[in-house]
Queue: 3 jobs
Job 1
Amino acid sequence: MSRSAYKCTDHRYKTRIISRTPLIIYIDKFLLDYEIQHLIELTETGHQTSSTVDLECQKTPVVKCIAQRFARFQATIRVEHIEPLRLVKYTSDQKYEPYVDWFLEADLEKYGSQRVATFFTYLYANCSQGETEFVNVRFNKFLHGKFCDILVCNENSRELGIRFRPIAGNTIFWYNVDEQGQGDVLTARAEQPPEKGGLKIGLNTWTHVEKFFVKKMRTLDDIHSTILCDF
């Protein structure tokens, strides 16, 4: 499909509630094959060769359509509340230890507002490993055994958090805060590395409680620098 022929239309996808506390929803086929291909191509053009690529204010119809879909999924959220999409590449020597996406109270002014929700979408995976693990949400065979097509279910599962298999096109959505609006430690996740020679590409999408705008940051450890996007 050519870029000029692309139309931003709604399509059918399937949702499954994996956990209620915290709320974690799995979305089958949230992105279309052409959209995935387009995002991956954006990581391979120009100077964008690092393991993390921020799609800062990309004006392509595909990127804008994807951002709008993430907003619509949350019903009351406007697209202006969503950070520019961030792509992440994982190789066998890259692993993210458990971390949370929400901000501490002292950091809210610096980052604009709280990240209330996260989408993590698998764009590509040629590996049998590379799971996304919610380390504080224990695997329960009674609750999670019916999801073994998307979760890792083996003899070690009961000793670990729920682990999502990397399946291209599918998305995990969760709320980062509890009912009081406080950061929820149960949402801590770890991105496991793929097997040797493998590659996983994911898409992070973060929703803020307010219209997204932050001051320009100076270090890679800070939130990625951006300006308010005009969608």
Job 2
Amino acid sequence: MNFDFYMPVRVVSGRTALADSAAQLKKLGDSCMVVTGKRSAKASGALDDLTEVLRREKISCTVYDGITENPLLSSCEEAAALAAEKKAAFVVGIGGGSPLDAAKAIAALAANPGLDREGFFQKAWKNPPLPIVLIGTTSGTGSEVSPTSVLTVDGVKKSVSGPELYASLAIANPAYTGTMSYNTTVSTGLDAFCHAVEGYFSPACDDITGYLAEKAMPMVYRGLKMMRPEMEMTPAFREQMYYGSLWAGLVLNAHGTSFPHPYGYVLTENHGIPHGKACAVFLPALLLHCAQYAPEKMERFLRVLDTDLPAVNQLLDSLSGVERISMTKEEIQSYRKRFTGLKHYANTPGAYSEEQGLRLFETLFLK
């Protein structure tokens, strides 16, 4: 048995996880910056629960609720300036992947006032980021347990990653996902499935991450098969999807992603497709590729899901909405630079290439 597994985030799970973590929060300092979007932190009850714990522990807080989907670096810079002004000792992110990723960036920027954008992405940080606490309200991103922040700069997604950006504490309470809309539940569920599958087929996948992926994939896949706009999303369903996404996040943390993720960024940036659905558009192509280059692993994958490959790919196509996307040949060619030299190609059985990516885009979108 061989493995190399590193995940330093303290994860506290359950419906009383925030209250149970009061002492841990107090150890981080007497003031904090709380980073949210406009809706989910409040609607889920997470912000109220946090505020109550902070009040009891006499920790002051400043709330910044200007984080949008696909968070802007400019918003993070604004929030970081406020955090520095208020002398925040730590940063709390509440929400889906966008506020959580933003919180990581804000923690780094607040600790390094005056840092320019190039220095930020190159991690030319004189000081370590402020301690980070992450509270997820969706079931898909895995951001709670990853050291990566994906931000939007001039319409293009860019990421910064490193062990400095791991959270000190993650609160894992499935009840906070209960107010997600149907469409958000679908997209985040697809994102979680992509994380588990892309990591599972990574050439670097080992015994620990293979185990976690085989735990995550059927949990999320069963949930995806149930998806209907009119369905009742019970607490049991929410819990299944949340913990499936958490296990998938641990796989993501260990092995990263394959080509569906950077290709998905192109759809999000240029066609407004939500991140999870955008990545899932390309997952059938990855699975067909893996069936050729990792046939034994594919057989095991299908046994774990108790299904066949056409059924998996049909479900992915129906939930991602791939048939609604169209492009011209000129548009596809304009993305060539985005496909060049991606590290994700080496994270794919049998590797992958820029030319294969261009052909895939033509197959899927050239109408």
Job 3
Amino acid sequence: MSTEPLPGTAGTRDELSDMRGLRTVLRLSFVADRRRSVATLLMFGLRPLGQVLAVVWLGLLVDAAGRGDTSSAWGYALASALTMGLTVLVMRLSLNVSALMIENTAHHADLGMQALANRIPGLGHYENPAYLDRLEHLRQERQHLAEGADVVGLEIGVLVRTLATVVLLALISPWLLLLPLATLLSLAAGRHAERLRQTALTEAAADLRRTRDLFQLASSPDAAMELRVFGLAATIEARHADSTERARATLAAANWRGLWLTTLGWAVFSAGYLTALLLVVAAYRDGTASVGQVVLALLLITGMNLQIDLLVRFTKALLRMARAGALYDWLERFSEAERIADTGVRPPERLTDGIALRGVTFRYPGTSGAPVLDAVDLRLPAGSVVALVGENGAGKSTLVKLLAGFYRPTSGELLADDVDLTAVAPEAWRERVTAAFQDFARLEFTLRDVVGVGDLSRAEDPDALIGALDKAAAGDLAERLPLGLDTPLGSSFPDGAKLSGGQWQKTALARSAMRETPLLLLFDEPTSAIDAAAEQELLDRYLLAARTLTRSTGAVAVIVTHRLSTLNHADLVVFLKHGKVHEFGPHQELLAHGDDYARLFELQRRAYR
């Protein structure tokens, strides 16, 4: 797992390639809905030819009428009407096809973003501000990921119409080519204005992310009590306003600069537009253009105003879409770079010796100073229950994360028997790990799924589900809920059952009890939301079940708890201090030594007496 700086975070143009981004969004459209993507490109790309052809028929109609050729005039009128009718029909059809294509692509892109973020095996990227800022930028722009075939088709269409218009104007008078040349400045101004906007979005990403986090905090039921008790609402609102204002100021400054550039571009176009009209009038006066050509030229020149507006608008949309695609492409490349190749090495079927750490040192990516874990040598015997204790910041949770494979050691070895766990694919190791964490996930599914995801192979087995709930002292939960195992949990369901914090934590414990053959059981403050008396009963029951697993597979059970009175279950105690193993041995031996562990235990014993 890479601990190097994120690829593509320095902000250079090469790192976020618009051309690569354009290919990415087109690929998303074609993978999500190939048939409608092709249809959208063809209909949006060719439809404008009908509009130009209808105008040509009108010019020919005027010339035929001027010559008194009634039959030809009627023919041109009919051709113009049919062409315009067919163009309108294609327009209506293309809009419906495009809407369905965008919907399918949006769904595909959202699933892709989730898969890419979750495919990264570790957790380091979630603690890297550069990654989070890029991800926030992508969230802000992700709606444009669905517009690939749509925007490209529109851009092709307006370019086709502009090209046809240029050819027809040149046939009337080469001097009229000055008008299309004047449009180039409008396009360049629009392109630069969009660049300014995208740069501003990148600069404002951190403030936008902070604003979103503060909003979630202010509207979260979990934080509602503390916000009210401590009167924090005004403070949160003020910080939200500060972050919002900084982001708004950054974006507004870019928008104003873009507006001035766009205005300058339109001023140049307006001058060219006026010049073209004067040239047409002069050509008619000199007799070098017929009445029909004058009408055709006027219609084309007048239409150029709308075409340039569309060309600028669609070019901005294209650039915006390409930048969103470049961000998605960056996420794909980053996810691929962080993947760990499956070497074929597998953990042992059963532990005979145990899990060993040899000289393990760990620093979080991008940090300096003292390591969180420093040259740790530790052997966790097979079949044992090991307690990790120590003061806050001692490295307990970090050690748990290393054991679970969320991080890899900065240096040193992590072994299961003689198998180097850094050579084992994280997914293969985690299949043999089960865990319950203090910061557990409140999965708002049915109770069946909330517990069953702990072992998907047994998720439909009612006996396995009830057994897991029993191990977590929650066997009566299914009986008390209105629909039993099929009861939806949480406020995301209109009829979802509302559970207490302790009940949610028991569902997390039940989830961790689903696997039958783990080699490692991790419990990081797994009963923090449960009162002391219930905690003792729950740990007695849960660790009794864990003992059964340790005997059958030689598994190691590691428990992190701040309540030292529960450690009579443990075979061994590891006392961490400043990232090192300060004390190690059976509970009673450490008490007899009278060192830091004994003093901390006595302090807690008096506090809970």
